[in-house]
Structure formats: structure tokens, C-alpha cells
């Protein structure tokens, strides 16, 4: 993700934005209460044959609060469109949604009060919305100290961050959580902003950091409950999937992976070898070198020392020696052979 601009998300009624039939109109008087009176950002209202889509973007530093509402006389399919790969947190304010994070195959059913983080690739995702009045808040996160801090303490957020940094085409949700009173109060605070009283940056950043704190607590509890109900095999399979999605010698340490699994290091080593017929450390190194090979092929402008850092090697020399041992040639020669 780029650090120089905020992420943007537009909601359309067709999968191709150019084909959208909506007409830009003023926000109907009955729904003006849902527009936050901020001097920064913008809002729009588009009329369709089924009703209206109202949306508003509020930049908060590098991040973006995106509120959107639908007023519809029938069930409809909408297409939130991301102009760059995005990590977001979705809060269902009102109504029911069925979300398809392309090309994630599972359909997520959400109801009022549900929320959760996700990674969305560039392009259109699919959301089915029921008739009536529905609303959601999306917080789109840029790479900065907040997101990196979340990734340091929550393995699932580390996966999302890695997917975003790689501009992966594979979307992924993390967990479907329920808003508690603290989360609900902070989400409601977004609509209570008064520019005559509150300072824009301080006000919205305070909301963002309280929501991030609650997300951390909820995901820790979610992972604990999930781990308590899993067998040792399922825990190790989860570690295996984490390594596949986020291969790095820096993060895939035995200490970190055993915490992720909720197993002792000895149990993790033993069960992993039983399931996959190889030591877990060998699997980590192999996946890191395969990722390095992918980057050498796919990003010819990426410096080899940066690739080394990406997969967790201390320097280019260490990566080069390990790469030659596996592929029979140094990274530079491998890239030239492509």
C-alpha cells in the first residue's frame, strides 16, 4: 500500500463502475442527519430505480472513515470498489449484509452489531443488501504505526498486512465479532462530530485508537476461544497456513508460532513433522526462499537486499547463500534466467 495517500472506496450498483446507472442528487432531507458535518472529505448521494446510495469519506490522517447507507425497496447487490489493496474494519450499523470478498469463496452473513477486519484486493467486491434502510462504517487503514502495532500483537492482522504489502489478489476476512458497548459508543461518536466544538484530527484519531484497542482485545479472545476448541492437528494446520501466507524468518520463529498454535514448541515440532513429513523450520526456510523466487520473477525492479528483508534474512549475502543452496544459482543469476 502507498503511504502518500489515503485508501478510497466507492460503492456502485454494478461490478463495472463505468456501467453504474446512478444519478447524482442532493441528499434527501430525511437522511441528511447521517452526513457528518466535516470540513475535510466529501459525500455523495446517487439515485437508482431501487432507491438511494449515500456515502461519505472522512480522512483521518492516513486512514479513511467511510460511511455508506442504502435505502432500497428490494434486495439488491452492491459492489464496493477499492482503488488499491486495502485493510479495513467493517462495522454493520443497521440491516443485514451478505459479503463476498473477491476471490474469497465463503459468503459472510452479517447482521446489525457485527464487525470485523478484512483484506480486500483492488477492484470490486460483492455485497447483498436486504430491503429497507441499511448502513455500515468502513475504516480503511494505511500502513503506519497503528497498523504495524496491531500486526505485532495479532497474528491475523500480520497476515492482512503482508497481503496488503504484496498487493495480493486474494481477499481475506479475519473474524466476525460483535460490538460491545464501548465499540458501539465509539462508532456512534463518528456521527456526533461538531466542527464548532471538536478538533477534527484529535476527535477522529481518539475514536480510531479506542476502536483499535477494542479490536485487539476481541481478536485475542476470539483466537483463545478458537484455540481452546481446536485439536492439536487443527492448531498445527493453522500454523501451516500462516507460514504459507506470511513466510518470513523474522516473524515465523518457533516462539511466535508456538504462541499462535497455543502449543509448546516441542508439541508443535512433533505434530508438524507427523502431519507434513518435514521439520517445521525446514518448511519455513523453504517457503521464504520460494517467496524470494516469486519476488525475483514478479518484481524485476525490487532490489535483492529488499527481497532479503521481506523474507526475513539479515542481509543480501545470507539470502544469496541460502538461495543458491536451494536453487543452484544466486538470486541475481536466477532473475537474469527468467
TrEMBL record:
GO terms for molecular function: DNA-binding transcription factor activity; sequence-specific DNA binding. Keywords: DNA-binding, Transcription, Transcription regulation. It comes from the Bacteria. Residues 237-337 form the HTH araC/xylS-type domain. Gene3D superfamilies: Homeodomain-like (1.10.10.60). It holds the Pfam family HTH_18. This is AraC family transcriptional regulator.
